[in-house]
## 1
Amino acid sequence: MKKYLFVILLSLSLPTQAITLDDLYKRYSPEGESAFDAERGKQLWNQKHTAEDGKIRQCSTCHGNDLSKSGEHVKTKKVIDPMARSVNAERFTKMKKIKKWFKRNCKWTVGRECTNQEKGDLIKYLTQF
Amino acid sequence: MTQQTKSILVWDVPTRVFHWLLVIAFAIAWLSYEDNRYLDTHIFSGYTFLGLLIFRLIWGVFGTHYARFQQFSYNSTEVISYIKGLFGEDLRHYVGHNPAGAWAIFALIGFGLALTLSGLFVLGGEEQHGPLAGIVSFRQSGIFRETHEVAAYGLLLLVFIHFCGVITESLLHKENLIGAMFRGTKSADTESASVRPHRLIATTMITVILAYVMATFGGYLTETADQPYLPFKGPELVQNELWQEECSDCHFAFHPSLLPARSWQLIFKQQADHFDDDLDLDEETVTELLAYANANSADLEQIEPAWRMNSSIASKDTPLRITDVRYWKKKHEEIDAEVWKRDSVKSKANCAACHLDAEQGTFEDADMRIPGDNSLDSIEWLKSVLGGAAK
């Protein structure tokens, strides 16, 4: 009985449990961290894309140019918490959020979903801050 | 007019205090009716007005000699003969109210009661506040609003007639009647006697009204920038954590009572292209969000904004943006383009910038302030004045 309870409690805590960076890299490549490159991530982060409406979209459109400062949703102007883990320890700790935002934001910015390689590169670049 | 005259106290202090406070309350009500932000002030003046009228009705029975209704109940023959006398030789002087003035007073009290009582119905119906909240429905409130408006203009006209009468009388009798309503004294024949002033009752009236002022507006003096004073508290609307979390990812979490159920259904159906974003919400999430939206949508008309928004949307239309709804546009058309651009506002989607209760979804009229306007400054000014007076 206790065992079942333990399993249930564990499974309940799973979705919100913080994920380590190592586990995160392993999800995107069997080789783990060594497969990813911060420099490539940086290029991706700064890459400009032209949207259907002719406007330039890039990560900084909403996240701003200083990763340690808050960004602003380009349309709704809602404040977006800083990306830098030095000021926002929450970043890259919850798998659910990581999945959600990679999917939503890659589609909006790049126009397609990002590949696992790109995601890992971006994480390696962003977690430097 | 060869009779000897003397000056006696005709209007006791409570009658005079009643008169001038009624004037002030009526003026405040006119000044505060148009802008929804001052609805708390308007309601304050309305209750004060009604309270004063109730006092006058009691005082008209138990008050001093010239304040009693019985003393100035004249029939129409007396009124007509009095008015005719004004233009002829037969100029009659009354110590208390003259017949024409007496009729004006009864009409003023009658219209005043119609005005405040219809106001209570509007408050109960449109705002769902006050003693008639929940008793009068949104749709029933229309007739009371019309009554309220007619009574307000009627009373204004009566005030004008009353004022003209006072001026005419003052000139014809060479007696300052406005001054008499301040001092309380009038000239009378030697047989008439002064009434008792009843200062204690007048002091009590003023104290009660000052306490009411503090109860209504005192919150403005103790508020802070983080915790602004909300004069109105709307009903507790159903909140949903998931809704709050998912919506406020990208924008203010608009309460579902701002759009009809068919709009929410379409929004979730088109979630892959939600104003340029692919929300990619899983089925479970959509089911919960949609159930919450359906159970609290504008068509249920749980609160005034829901009713107003829903009533202004044609049944064939399915708006996807709150800012596309006619009622929303009408309510915000007078706001300058510059206000939307302010750092504290920035976007029309930022409801909470001005609506202090936007997160609760109640959007009460008086819980509204445009940031950067001088409203807070005037409070600061008032605080400094009161602080200075205290020293």
## 2
Amino acid sequence: MAGIRDTVGKDKSRLPHVSRRAMLVGATAAGGLALAWSIWPRDYQPNLTAAPDEHIFNAFLKIGDDGHISAIVPQCEMGQGVTTLLPQIMADELGADWRTIAVETAPISPLYTNTLLVDADSTTFTPRTGVPDFVSDVRSWARREWAVRNAVMLTANGSSVQMFEEPCRAAAAQARVLLMMAAARRWDANWEDCDTQDGFVTFGAKKLRFAEVAAAAALLEPPAEPVYRSNSADPLYGKELTRLDLPAKIDGSANYAGDIRLPDMVFAAIRQGPLGATRLKSLDRKAGMQSPGLLHIVQHERWLATVARNWWAANRALDRFAPVFETAGTPVSSDGIDKALKAALKEDAYRIVSEGDVADAMEGRTKIAAEYAVAPALHAPIETRTATAALDGERVRVWVATQAPAQCCAAIARATGLPESMVTLFPMMAGGSFDACLDHSVAVQAAIIARQVRRPVQLAWSRAEEIMRDLPRAPARARMTATLNAAGGIDALVARIAVPSTNHEFRDRLFDNTPADVAQRAAAGKADAAAVEGAANIYAIPHVAVDHCPADIGLPTGRWRGNADSYTAFFTECFIDEMAARGGTDALSYRMAMLGKAPLLARCLLTATSLGGWEGGLSGTTQGLACHSMRGSHIALMATARQSDKGLQVEQLVAVVDAGRLVNPAIARQQIEGGLIFGLAAAVGATTDYEGGVATARKLGQLGLPRLSQCPQILVEFIDSDRDPGALGEIGVPVVAPAIANAMFAATGRRIRRIPLSGHPV
Amino acid sequence: MTRFSVNDRPVEYRMEPETPLLWALRDASNLTGTKYGCGTGECGACTVDIDGEAIRSCMVTIAECEGRFVTTIEGLARDRSHPVQQAWVAEQVPQCGFCQSGMIMAAAALLRTNSNPSDAEIDAAMTNICRCGTYLRIRTAIRLAGRVIRGEERIAAAPPPGIRPADAARAVPALRPARRN
């Protein structure tokens, strides 16, 4: 295993040279680069494996004697294009020919920890108010160290490029220097005088393929600091390269967890009963055992699985067993959820954001208030939770899509009693996810079943299980209160938001393997700053307060594409619109007057309204606006919508986005389009009621998801920018519902304060 | 009886006759390109071509397929050369990709009988659900594939599978032809 080592950045105290990249993108980017470099874990060796004719350069790159370059991607591909984006960054820095790039999923290693996400998490989780900076710094350092030790390789928050651009670039720079050093030895030249282009090392008129020097290069010692490629006539960065995963996604050969086929493999279906403290009480064994094709059953304290030669036979057998479940405590219901949210709104809250002095500013002034409510949002990916598991001696091997592979392994180990070293995970592409793959139940269940039946097994949840056992994005309720200044502008704003403490639940489930109902109970009443994220981040309002009223709704909740911003943007952007309408002010100029401190967002808003042909938002028009900033990106959306005999008709969405520099504009466009349509689905459906502890929806068709015929015209424009990349995956989601609601107000004069928008007014 | 053709090959499934075609394809024939998404005919991820018609394979039993000709995504073309597949890559349609086999099969069946469908005809034929939001690109890609089928345009967006290393090395200078021992 020659060449396996991590020689990058051994010296903690030193920072990299000013690079071409830093020159290119300016001083802030240089700061970012230094930070990324200094936090890259250094006390770990890459744990990659290589074919005999492949050479490992570092944790991110291998080069073969034939010239293929394997880019290692430590993130879950769930459609966001990360298996193209990170390789594109590496190929650009390396000077590679794009046609030689292959992709491999990273093994579990602390080298791939998503420290950015852990940092972002630590600052949003606990209110910063009252915490001295040094205490906060120590806490985030400790969290980061903990995350690295536990190899927290999360894929979430659209952070893939933000987190891994610099490590990928540094890894490619290192490999490039090694290739140049090896070539220079052959030419008896200085490596500093060499360059790379299209998969060749060049020195004047001399050229050598990477393939020809890879073996020698991988054995050399690189300089302690990365040396970046100074220029390229034809950079790959910023090009609309075709996604590498597309060929396999048009001929059916792309493999998801359910496409694994192993010798002697059997198929399992499962029934898990209501959410909550549920246990399997009884089943009709006599009727069930007669099911055609049934091979085994596996009974667990909380579920029943059937195993057959095909999945349909296994699933049908479940009906015949007619399992009965027993749930302790009050069963979850939509009524109960609404009551809990309303009650929480009246009780003491945690003040998460406080600027100016709202109490003083509101004293003796006329307060204007409105209440909004948002239903739970389901993930509803087309792929239901699926995992394949097989035994290898006493070891267990699991194929599954996961956004947190190390934690998935730990969960399997804990449930099976095996040490983690006995669990092998094969991370698969996800068929959607939208953060559903942060839950590892299916992987754990598959491992348990495989160990019982002693043969390879593939477990897929039925669509009904997928709906009933989904941990939805939390429902929320808000009371927005404002006082206005003489000009009708907002002087003080209080957003009281009743919502469960989802992120505490999520952490307990992910890191401690706490059952969902137990985690839900434990989180009740805790302050969760991330649960109200995005409530007050853009407008220059002198006095602002955001309160989290923790609601104990009994329903376990989870992370979801857009997270808290998906409801906080609805509350804020609708309420702003109400204030504008109240004074008869144009919703555009009303917003612009308060965007003095947010020039990037203001530019998006002006561009969107100019592209979309904003008519002033007067009543009788059908146009509505919303804008939002999150995770380094900004978006403005102009929606055109009307009420027709077929119900709510969304005709057009015009979005303008500033997400900094774009690695691949074509993929960025896909992400925004996709986010908008995901937001549209959530605005009109993607939800369920709950009754007696279970979701009332059982079929996909009951979720009101839009189809092609309901899809509005969509126009997406990006603002040219040299800023560091912002996140793209979620930014499209939060603005859709408020823009449509505001358009509906303009069209009908009726203010919709509830999501889904097609529901009844609050 | 459960004898019929799958991708131009005669097959007899020794399974319960009421087994939905989807599970015979996936679990007996290992044709895993056809996906399970709902089992109730709503998502369309399991769409296959039966005698020229786009059919949700979760909704027909293998008994009902007796004597018919079933084509799955694996049988649409041997080398990704079908105009719909090429157009799908040219327009960068897929994101997660899970629903795309069904989408492509539905689009191919539509274009077989109508190579120049109107918006309304596309809407009526493409009732599959995609959660990544590829809908608008699907519309554009169907139009492009229609132009290719009508001979108005040519595209070469996706490479065929199984390119031999020697051929790849001829086209890409950075690759080194395999050494002969």
## 3
Amino acid sequence: MKVSLKKVAQFSVLSSLLVLAACGGGGEQATGEKEGQAAGGGVITADIGVISYISGPGAAYGEAITSGLKLAQKEINAKGDVEINLLIEDSAGKQDQALTAAQKLMNSENVTAIIGPTLSTEMNVVGPEADLNGVPIMGTSTTAEGIPQLGEYVFRNSIPEALAIPASMTKAIEKYGAKKVAILYGNDDVFTKSGFDTMKKAAEDMDLEILTIETFQKGQSDYNAQLTKIKGMNPDLILASALYNEGAVIMDQARKMGIDVPFVGGNGFNSPEVIKIAGDAANGLIVATPWYGEKDDSKVKEFVSKFEEEYGKKPDQFAAQAYDALYIYAEALKNAGEADRDAFRDALAQVKDFNGILGNFSFDDEGDVVMDPTVLIIEDGQFKEFN
Amino acid sequence: MLAELINPYYLQVASFVLINIILGISVYIPLSTGQLSLASAGFMGMGAYTSALLTIHFELPIVLGIIAGTLVAGIMGVLIGIPTLRLQGVYLAIVTLGFGEVIRVLFVNWESLTKGSVGLSGIPHMGREILASLREFGFNPQSLGLQNNQFIFLTIFFLLLVITAFIIWFFRRQHSSRVGRAFAAIKLDEKAAESMGINITYYKVLAFAQGAVIAGFAGALYAHVLAYISPADFAYHRAVEILVFTVFGGSEVIWGPVFGSLFLTLMPEVLRFISEYRYMLYGLIIIIMMAVRPQGLIDVHLLELLKSKTAKRRQKYGAGNQKSM
């Protein structure tokens, strides 16, 4: 009796192992077949994961990004070269949530590639993990220093501050002949802090005299102390690395105090909300942006009208960047010819001179952005191209 | 099949659950002497930054980094615990909240060391380091039929599971020891406890410091599981979140914070399918629960009820067994 029990046990272990092996093999075969068919039929089907900031205080970013993506998805799938399924997950703006969302997409949903997450802090956590798993990942709104350097599989199509800020500074200096600048920045936010680092470096490179560096905190409402000091020093230009909500209040208070020099802002300052909050005081703000909705370009006009029709409001830069990002993915997918992660990564790295709504776009060796930003200035309560 | 069961996604969520359980306990311990502390996020940050900086700049092994982070948080806990002894209730909560903010602002402004609000990246990852050192001994996860990332998350999970189980075991033992009874006496009535000869100063500082040690420890683990930390992670939102774990689960018994952390960490993941509405439902669940059970979900009565039920069932089952004999 005992012996037979042992045999039964041995047999069941053996058979379960066999079943396991068969299952594993079967799974691989199935996916292989699926890809083969797709390539043969001419339509490449791919699951693209999206990690976005959909709930929480920054949900407006996530909403813009997902609407841009959905619009692009509709158009791309209608064209019929590639079939993209979007799997959208929420990160709530938290690193740990972004990481679990990424794990879910990479391991449970087996996506080919990921778009997102929204914040640079989230990308700092998700990027290395995706790189380790060999899943291509592209940020559409991550502008901080060092994002594409996280790994070979990490890309972005959002213009980094290191490209945008010097561009707007150069133009402003040329126009106004500025020599002395004052810098004002929010030191408790990743975005504004990293913008400040770029500003300081650019100012040093351009041999500008930095009169003073002042800081403020998120949610501050009174900037008179900093502005009084700046006013006393008489700068030609004020560099302000601030998010639009604080930035608009700063400009308002500065103008009331009689500071009428132009402001140069970072990417976070670039929002139509500035004009809404500060009104006339917003005139004279110079920002560099990848996205200019009034551009005289058929693609841009088409996108703006389609977006307005679909969502009832004008697209912002986040929607535009996300829209272009999915088109870049579609192009890479077409060139790769299959929904394989490695083939897709190689094809993505080779995307060059892609002509999207943001302009002419290429990746450099590290997966960072190569393109010329547009410099804008607020005049008479409107964003206009700055020349 | 086995490979599918070991999904890094589930393991990742489980790891966060375990870390949050440790954090929940760090609020429960001071609370068991009647001290409402909101400093746990601050202590957590101290542990995380200490360990991260030591392992990045001095290439210390992670274990030593975590121990150092825990100790620093613990020492800080004693230093904060002594002067705040005379405070109670809301006043203590305000002071500890202030302490947490001081720590966060320190991380933001000490840029030469902490890189300010940009945060520290490139912290050695616990699982990847373990795998790398095992590789040196010629071990290969493929020999177990696992992929690298599966192995990484499996080791992290089991490590955290053992640690959490040990911590729960320790505090359960402590609860029924002399120390635990002293804590309970202080919570019920400080003056009475003092007149019974309990050294209130000692036990209150002990509880506060234990909370700090545990929070610092959890913070250090968090840093090495996430491999990136920034001051915003340890803001007062975090302190409130940890407090909610404990208050929601129940602060009378240790199973309260354990269950609270488990439930509230799992909830946002389980609710993923309703995407942007999930935090609405999450908030609603908390409101309903708190309205129905203000003392927290798990309290002494519930545990006794469960115990007596299982005991009855066992009696029945036992009797049934005897019959068939």
